[in-house]
Amino acid sequence: MRFTIKESGSLQKRAVSKAVVTTYLSAVNQKLLFARQLLSYVSEANPKKTQHSTVLTQSVAVQLHQAWLWHCRNIAENYKLQELEAVDCANTLVELLAAQGKTPGEATELQNLQNDPHSWLSELLKAHHYIYRLPTVRKAEMDVDRLPMISLDAPEAVDWSLERAELWLSNMQELVERQREMMVEF
Fold it and tell me: What share of the chain is helix, strand, coil (3-state, %, to 5)?
């Protein structure tokens, strides 16, 4: 088989483009797998200990946040958006696609979930953001043994239960699978 230079370059471009799609798809799959594996440790850990639950749930939140970001970029890639790295949330995904005259349902759904303060995705994103915030210290209080304890206030309470992490994971898996099916039909 002989290719002209023009044909060879075209094949290389297609191979590189396909590799990028595969990379985002694989990256999302990997993060979903990591979240499932973290939750599988529940049987090994003592689920009654709040600290174990918090550690696992926060870890799941980090994995799922990254899966969500890469899923946004996977959608951008599927709709031939050039600035994949500029996509940092569903709002920028929708804005960048709209600038190219595209309004895919997948991006709109992500934006609606992100901006709805009562959605599971909004809750996940807030929890992820909370992980990186320092708690504020309020006055010292005396505990039962009369030792001064420094209380830490959190501006927003986050439910770090394993049930919450499982809900985020199942919703994220369902969303990604359903949207991938929609993009295949496109």
Answer: 70, 5, 25
